[in-house]
Protein backbone atom coordinates (compact mmCIF):
# COMPACT_ATOMS: atom_id res chain seq x y z
CA UNK A 1 0.00 0.00 0.00
CA UNK A 2 1.16 3.50 -0.78
CA UNK A 3 0.31 6.62 1.21
CA UNK A 4 0.88 10.28 0.51
CA UNK A 5 2.19 12.16 3.54
CA UNK A 6 2.17 15.95 3.47
CA UNK A 7 3.56 17.08 0.12
CA UNK A 8 5.17 13.74 -0.73
CA UNK A 9 3.85 10.74 -2.62
CA UNK A 10 6.18 7.72 -3.02
CA UNK A 11 8.02 7.42 -6.34
CA UNK A 12 8.57 3.86 -7.58
CA UNK A 13 10.34 2.87 -10.80
CA UNK A 14 8.19 0.66 -13.02
CA UNK A 15 10.68 -2.23 -12.84
CA UNK A 16 10.61 -2.34 -9.03
CA UNK A 17 8.31 -4.74 -7.21
CA UNK A 18 6.65 -3.61 -3.99
CA UNK A 19 4.55 -6.39 -2.47
CA UNK A 20 0.90 -5.41 -1.91
CA UNK A 21 1.32 -6.21 1.81
CA UNK A 22 4.23 -3.77 2.19
CA UNK A 23 3.52 -0.19 3.29
CA UNK A 24 5.35 2.76 1.72
CA UNK A 25 4.57 6.24 3.04
CA UNK A 26 5.58 9.72 1.94
CA UNK A 27 9.04 10.86 0.88
CA UNK A 28 10.33 7.57 -0.57
CA UNK A 29 12.07 7.04 -3.92
CA UNK A 30 12.54 3.44 -5.10
CA UNK A 31 14.84 2.74 -8.06
CA UNK A 32 15.09 0.12 -10.79
CA UNK A 33 14.85 -3.62 -10.09
CA UNK A 34 14.21 -3.12 -6.37
CA UNK A 35 12.37 -5.79 -4.38
CA UNK A 36 10.29 -4.79 -1.34
CA UNK A 37 8.90 -7.85 0.47
CA UNK A 38 5.58 -8.35 2.28
CA UNK A 39 5.36 -6.80 5.72
CA UNK A 40 8.09 -4.24 4.98
CA UNK A 41 7.40 -0.72 6.26
CA UNK A 42 9.12 2.27 4.63
CA UNK A 43 8.03 5.43 6.47
CA UNK A 44 9.15 8.63 4.76
CA UNK A 45 7.01 10.79 7.02
CA UNK A 46 9.61 12.76 9.05
CA UNK A 47 12.46 12.49 6.56
CA UNK A 48 13.33 10.80 3.29
CA UNK A 49 14.19 7.32 2.06
CA UNK A 50 16.22 6.74 -1.10
CA UNK A 51 16.49 3.17 -2.39
CA UNK A 52 18.97 2.87 -5.28
CA UNK A 53 18.81 0.44 -8.18
CA UNK A 54 19.04 -3.28 -7.47
CA UNK A 55 18.42 -3.13 -3.71
CA UNK A 56 16.19 -5.50 -1.81
CA UNK A 57 14.34 -4.96 1.45
CA UNK A 58 13.00 -8.31 2.53
CA UNK A 59 9.98 -9.39 4.57
CA UNK A 60 9.12 -7.51 7.78
CA UNK A 61 11.90 -4.93 7.54
CA UNK A 62 11.43 -1.40 8.87
CA UNK A 63 13.06 1.70 7.37
CA UNK A 64 12.54 4.99 9.26
CA UNK A 65 14.42 7.99 10.66
CA UNK A 66 14.47 10.91 13.09
CA UNK A 67 13.03 14.19 11.66
CA UNK A 68 15.04 15.75 8.85
CA UNK A 69 17.20 12.68 8.10
CA UNK A 70 17.36 10.86 4.77
CA UNK A 71 18.00 7.11 4.84
CA UNK A 72 20.05 5.99 1.83
CA UNK A 73 20.51 2.49 0.48
CA UNK A 74 23.13 2.60 -2.26
CA UNK A 75 23.14 0.26 -5.27
CA UNK A 76 22.51 -3.42 -4.57
CA UNK A 77 22.26 -3.04 -0.81
CA UNK A 78 20.71 -6.23 0.56
CA UNK A 79 18.53 -5.95 3.68
CA UNK A 80 17.71 -9.34 5.23
CA UNK A 81 14.42 -10.48 6.74
CA UNK A 82 13.26 -8.52 9.77
CA UNK A 83 16.08 -5.96 9.81
CA UNK A 84 15.57 -2.38 11.01
CA UNK A 85 17.35 0.53 9.31
CA UNK A 86 16.84 3.78 11.24
CA UNK A 87 18.44 6.96 9.93
CA UNK A 88 21.47 5.21 8.39
CA UNK A 89 23.36 5.07 5.11
CA UNK A 90 24.03 1.60 3.69
CA UNK A 91 26.78 1.47 1.07
CA UNK A 92 26.88 -0.30 -2.29
CA UNK A 93 26.91 -4.09 -2.24
CA UNK A 94 26.37 -4.29 1.54
CA UNK A 95 24.47 -7.06 3.26
CA UNK A 96 22.55 -6.36 6.47
CA UNK A 97 21.74 -9.73 8.01
CA UNK A 98 18.40 -10.97 9.29
CA UNK A 99 16.95 -9.22 12.36
CA UNK A 100 19.85 -6.79 12.59
CA UNK A 101 19.34 -3.21 13.78
CA UNK A 102 21.28 -0.33 12.22
CA UNK A 103 20.79 2.92 14.12
CA UNK A 104 20.94 6.62 13.36
CA UNK A 105 23.92 8.32 11.71
CA UNK A 106 25.55 4.97 10.94
CA UNK A 107 27.45 4.82 7.65
CA UNK A 108 28.26 1.34 6.38
CA UNK A 109 31.04 1.29 3.81
CA UNK A 110 30.79 -0.43 0.44
CA UNK A 111 30.93 -4.21 0.41
CA UNK A 112 30.46 -4.64 4.17
CA UNK A 113 28.49 -7.49 5.72
CA UNK A 114 26.51 -7.06 8.94
CA UNK A 115 25.87 -10.45 10.54
CA UNK A 116 22.41 -11.64 11.55
CA UNK A 117 21.13 -10.27 14.89
CA UNK A 118 23.81 -7.56 15.00
CA UNK A 119 23.19 -4.17 16.65
CA UNK A 120 25.10 -1.39 14.88
CA UNK A 121 25.03 1.41 17.43
CA UNK A 122 24.31 5.06 16.72
CA UNK A 123 26.98 6.95 14.82
CA UNK A 124 29.24 3.99 13.96
CA UNK A 125 31.29 4.51 10.83
CA UNK A 126 31.98 1.13 9.24
CA UNK A 127 34.90 1.09 6.77
CA UNK A 128 34.41 -0.62 3.38
CA UNK A 129 34.46 -4.43 3.31
CA UNK A 130 34.05 -4.85 7.06
CA UNK A 131 32.49 -7.94 8.62
CA UNK A 132 30.49 -6.78 11.68
CA UNK A 133 28.85 -9.06 14.26
CA UNK A 134 27.49 -8.95 17.79
CA UNK A 135 25.52 -6.81 20.21
CA UNK A 136 26.93 -4.23 20.20
CA UNK A 137 28.36 -4.78 16.75
CA UNK A 138 32.11 -4.91 16.31
CA UNK A 139 34.31 -5.29 13.27
CA UNK A 140 35.95 -8.71 13.35
CA UNK A 141 37.78 -8.71 10.02
CA UNK A 142 37.75 -7.63 6.40
CA UNK A 143 35.25 -9.29 4.05
CA UNK A 144 37.28 -11.69 1.86
CA UNK A 145 36.85 -11.74 -1.90
CA UNK A 146 35.02 -15.09 -1.95
CA UNK A 147 32.49 -13.90 0.64
CA UNK A 148 31.78 -10.74 -1.35
CA UNK A 149 31.32 -12.81 -4.53
CA UNK A 150 28.92 -15.08 -2.60
CA UNK A 151 26.95 -12.08 -1.30
CA UNK A 152 26.68 -10.54 -4.77
CA UNK A 153 25.29 -13.81 -6.20
CA UNK A 154 22.50 -13.67 -3.60
CA UNK A 155 21.76 -10.06 -4.44
CA UNK A 156 21.62 -10.96 -8.14
CA UNK A 157 18.80 -13.42 -7.35
CA UNK A 158 16.87 -10.63 -5.65
CA UNK A 159 17.61 -8.24 -8.51
CA UNK A 160 15.84 -10.70 -10.87
CA UNK A 161 12.94 -11.27 -8.47
CA UNK A 162 10.96 -8.08 -9.32
CA UNK A 163 10.63 -9.14 -12.97
CA UNK A 164 9.67 -12.67 -11.90
CA UNK A 165 7.02 -11.30 -9.53
CA UNK A 166 5.61 -8.95 -12.16
CA UNK A 167 5.51 -11.80 -14.66
CA UNK A 168 4.14 -14.65 -12.60
CA UNK A 169 2.91 -13.81 -9.10
CA UNK A 170 -0.84 -13.60 -8.61
CA UNK A 171 -3.34 -14.20 -5.86
CA UNK A 172 -4.69 -17.75 -5.85
CA UNK A 173 -6.61 -20.36 -3.92
CA UNK A 174 -4.42 -23.05 -2.34
CA UNK A 175 -4.35 -26.57 -3.69
CA UNK A 176 -5.92 -29.27 -1.49
CA UNK A 177 -3.31 -31.93 -2.17
CA UNK A 178 0.23 -32.12 -3.45
CA UNK A 179 0.31 -32.69 -7.23
CA UNK A 180 2.87 -34.94 -8.92
CA UNK A 181 6.24 -33.29 -9.50
CA UNK A 182 5.76 -30.79 -6.65
CA UNK A 183 9.29 -31.14 -5.27
CA UNK A 184 11.40 -28.34 -3.89
CA UNK A 185 13.20 -26.29 -6.52
CA UNK A 186 16.88 -27.02 -7.00
CA UNK A 187 18.90 -24.18 -5.53
CA UNK A 188 21.66 -22.51 -7.46
CA UNK A 189 22.66 -20.48 -4.39
CA UNK A 190 23.82 -22.01 -1.09
CA UNK A 191 24.27 -20.57 2.40
CA UNK A 192 27.78 -19.41 3.28
CA UNK A 193 28.40 -22.44 5.54
CA UNK A 194 26.86 -25.03 3.21
CA UNK A 195 29.56 -27.62 2.37
CA UNK A 196 28.22 -27.78 -1.19
CA UNK A 197 28.72 -24.04 -1.76
CA UNK A 198 31.08 -23.22 -4.63
From TrEMBL:
CDD domains: LbH_paaY_like. It comes from the Bacteria. PANTHER family: DYNACTIN SUBUNIT P25, GAMMA CARBONIC ANHYDRASE-LIKE 1, MITOCHONDRIAL-RELATED. This is Phenylacetic acid degradation protein. It comes from Dinghuibacter silviterrae.
Amino acid sequence: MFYTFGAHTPVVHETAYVHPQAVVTGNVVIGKDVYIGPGAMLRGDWGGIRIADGCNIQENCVVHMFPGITVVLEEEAHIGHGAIIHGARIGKHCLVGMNSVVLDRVVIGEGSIIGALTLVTEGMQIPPRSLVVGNPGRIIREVPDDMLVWKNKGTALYRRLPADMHGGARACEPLREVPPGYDAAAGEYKSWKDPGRE
